[in-house]
């Protein structure tokens, strides 16, 4: 077989395989065609909110943009944003998973990175009742005052010698 034909067939096979493997099962709203690596970042321009308003005239108030390798759905009108934030808030309340949060937060088990659900609601209730209630704030007032006095003392001590600014205490 001709080597040029073999290279062409291999390239065609790789392109078809790439398109077959990257097909999405999730239907996304319409949006501009992204560039290969940077996605739709060049479409945003120097003033992104003006560019998004112009794109909304073409693609509608709900559009799909690709920021690098991350898919983003943009709500460009107040009514669509209200549907996201009020009507469908439980569907969009989680943070995207990342490896740093997984390792630091013990597999997403702390309050900050826990997915929305019964555990997150329980942790939030514990914090609001036992840590941030009026009684708890009164109980820990002396600790906060000691920390503020210590920070002020370190600041005054550091300000008296005209040395390096921004050094560690």
UniProtKB/TrEMBL annotation:
Keywords for the protein's UniProt record, in alphabetical order: Heme, Iron, Metal-binding, Monooxygenase, Oxidoreductase
InterPro entries: Cyt_P450 (IPR001128), Cyt_P450_sf (IPR036396)
Alphabetical list of Pfam families matching this protein: p450 (PF00067)
Cofactors that this protein relies on: heme
GO molecular function: heme binding; iron ion binding; monooxygenase activity; oxidoreductase activity, acting on paired donors, with incorporation or reduction of molecular oxygen
SUPFAM superfamilies named among the record's database cross-references: Cytochrome P450
Keyword Iron appears in the UniProt entry: yes
Family as reported in the entry's similarity comment: Belongs to the cytochrome P450 family.
Record-given protein name: Flavonoid 3'-monooxygenase
Organism name: Vitis vinifera
This protein's encoding gene: CYP75B1_14
């Amino acid at each position: 077989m001709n080597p040029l034909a073999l290279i062409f067939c291999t390239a065609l096979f790789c392109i078809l395989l790439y398109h077959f493997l990257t097909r999405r099962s999730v239907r996304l709203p319409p949006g501009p065609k992204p560039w290969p690596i940077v996605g739709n970042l060049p479409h945003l321009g120097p003033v992104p909110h003006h560019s998004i308003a112009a794109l909304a005239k073409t693609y509608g108030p709900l559009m799909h943009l690709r920021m690098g390798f991350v898919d983003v759905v943009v709500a460009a009108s107040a009514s669509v944003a209200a549907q996201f934030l009020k009507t469908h808030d439980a569907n969009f309340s989680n943070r995207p998973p990342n490896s740093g949060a997984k390792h630091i937060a013990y597999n997403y088990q702390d309050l900050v990175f826990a997915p929305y659900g019964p555990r997150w609601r329980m942790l939030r209730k514990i914090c609001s009742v036992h840590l941030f209630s009026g009684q708890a704030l009164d109980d820990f007032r002396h600790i906060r005052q000691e920390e503020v006095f210590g920070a002020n003392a370190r600041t005054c001590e550091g300000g008296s010698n005209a040395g390096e600014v921004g050094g560690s205490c």
